[in-house]
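tool=predict chain=A
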Amino acid sequence: AGCSFCRIIAKEIPFTVLYETDEVVAICDILPLRFGHTLVVPKVHIPHVRDLPVNIAATMGVWPKRSNWGANAAMQNTALNIICNQEYAQSVPHVHFHIIPAPRLGGLPGTDTMRVVPRTTRELHQLEYEGRSELGEDEGRELAEKIWAGL
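tool=predict ok
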């Protein structure tokens, strides 16, 4: 078993790399909340933000800036959410940042249209959460290529 992110870093689980340094890897989330959802993960197992060395925290902070350029080019969307759950709502006890393109009423280019049109932002968030599906390897590669092209 073990930590899913440690297994990904050890290349025991397939993933799509968007950005990588000696200390950090940014990957496509395999169960994205929204199209373009990425994760920034330190390569060493660190369960709490308070234990994150400053140099690794700084390296992790580079990706949101870079990914915003890529997301803008790939999806015509500069709005994003940067989230780091710790214990509460954290499904993997390994520090990681979620970089998630923000939703817009009416959808984003390149995403499936919703069967039910939300009337409020709250309804939009609920529909998105319920509508999550696994990102396939081909979809991950295609997304990565679009983001890389915009960097």
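Residues 80 and 102 are 4 Å apart (CA to CA). The radius of gyration is 15 Å.
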